[in-house]
Amino acid sequence: MRSVLATLLVHADQVVPVSSLIRELWDEEPPVSCLTTLQTYILNLRKLLASATGMTARQVASEILVTRSGGYLFRTTQGDLDVHRFHQLVSDGRRALSSGDDSTALSTLSSALQLWRGPALVDVVAGRILEGRRQQFEESRLVVLEYLVDTQLRLGMYREVLTELAALTADNPYHEGLHAQYMRALYLNGRRAQALELFQRLRVNLVNHLGLEPGPMAQELHRSILNAESIDAQGNLRRPTGDIVRMSSSGAVRVY
Question: Which PROSITE patterns match (predicted)?
């Protein structure tokens, strides 16, 4: 029943076909009684929602968990779901970043991440649909964390990001962007040897498990740290000539 509710919620305000719910619950081998069992789950969910909201089961069926042609729809209003609030805060934070308002971006993105209380859908048995959404949610969280760390580094919060980045790189041993941010933070804190060790750890993980070398951005940052060149909080290299070498997210290197 929990899987049914989760599937409806990740598709809130959209009709979820009965066939999709059956496939989520039983994959390609549904029992003969699958349709009856699904209808029982829906009935029980409506009773639970009625108890939680003070509505009657009939009201829940017409206003919240609604039957539609070929499927079911879970109707929500603005702010009902934390995932909707998360995406709204992220959009606000990205607008602040685009306008150069790092202070507002820091506050807004931090508020978005504070909505998380652990891994997405952690207490739900996930089939194909929910597993795909779980991965999507987790990737969204990582992207926002990267935005947040970039913002903190620009604001000079070098020490504040170290603990978070240590945990993130341990949990994501192949994520080059997070490792590059951690290398920058360590180097800007005067911990050059640890920054170099971190690159080697990343390289070993990539080569041994994926057969890949680190990308151009991580390698250029490694060379800069190895040569004790000056870099700023955004990872841009400053050469003795006064040129600024900027590394894009794609790994391209440009000299200004």
Answer: OMPR_PHOB
